[in-house]
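This part of the workshop introduces the protein records we will be handling. A learned vocabulary of local backbone shapes supplies the integers on the structure line. Getting from the letters to the tokens is the skill we practise here. As an example, a complete record with its sequence and its structure tokens follows.
=====
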Amino acid sequence: MESVMRKTTITGLLTTCVVSLAMFSSCTGVEPNTLTQEEVADGWQLLFDGKTLNGWKDYNGTTLTQPWHVVDGCIQAKGDGSDASGYIVTDKQYENFELSWDWKLSKGGNSGMLYHVVERPQFAVPYVTGPEYQLIDEPNFPEPLEEWQKLGVDYAMHLPDKSKMKVNPQGEWNNSKIVFDNGHVEHWLNGAKILEFEDWTDDWYAKKNSGKWANAPEYGLAKKGVLCLQDHGYPASFRNIKIKELPRKTKEVELFNGVDLKGWEAYGTEKWYVKDGLLICESGPDKKYGYLATRDYYDDFDLTVEFKQEADGNSGVFIRSFIEEDVKVNGWQVEVAPKGHDTGGIYESYGRGWLVQIPDEKENILKEGDWNTMRIKIQGDNVQTWLNGQEMVNINDEKIGAGQGRIALQIHDGGGIKVLWKNLKVKTL
């Protein structure tokens, strides 16, 4: 019975898709999946040509194998229940944008549009990194829904203003829009703004850390990523998917306020504390690796830090890194170590190892037992480091260029380590 019902639903959705396309074209004079001259001049781009799935691929893949297809100018999810975790993503990343699309669901249907999705093997599904604009046929959904699961929500985070929501009947087209502008987020439905919030504020982090995403440390942190359509096992159709990219705004941030560890998150059992206006890291009784990571992601930036090594002083500054289980930071480290051990060099953790080591003639640039100034500039695939005004590294690396993530300070394992930090300042580029 279920398979018969699903077949009927799919057939009905195909029929209404064809009829609706014809009505749309005759009423507006604008063909679906095209841009007006005004939109082209304003910078809009089509993400779906109405004929092929060019520009889309499997999540964490290089080609398209998921059971999505194009029917009569619509992208359609197979929706037979066998593919309830089917995701397709754009082959390009987007940062700041206006994204608009038309959508239609089967009776009781469930789908979504995700953005800023990070593709890495460590992330098995897109929703552990990317926020979702929820699409669901509330009146006909077969199970009770929590408020944070309903139409238009920022899934499991922010709720829309129901009084502003006008939803077309099931089987008809609706239009949605997401605006993401340097942390300012808007959800629109059929021409009305239904939700507005700011990312990465204290309130945002409180919601993230107390709800569904409490155990998803990288959820919502990425400032860029691919777009993702979700197949939740129900037929769903999409068309007129278009995007207008918005400019990135630069800013300067004091990463350490000299008072407490606000804006940072500690991982591991090693010691991180503030004393006399200094940020201090010190080995704990477990003598294992420890990390202090920024809450926020920083991708392209110019970072300056001052540090003084006491005891062994083996530490480091991680860039474009993310947290894994078992107190593991995956990314690239600019080394902070005793003289003779490549301070200012670049090491890829859990990967290729040393990318650049420091020549012997530069080892004396480090001032042991005194304050040192390190500068790290990363933009695209280029990384430069300086120690006390002297350039240590200047490399281009494609893998680094594809990365994104947090800034993090490290305590090396082995015990006996103590490093003092101050004047941690970053300028986004």
Summary: DSSP finds four helices and 28 strands in the chain. The chain has a mean pLDDT of 91. Residues 308 and 371 are 5 Å apart (CA to CA).
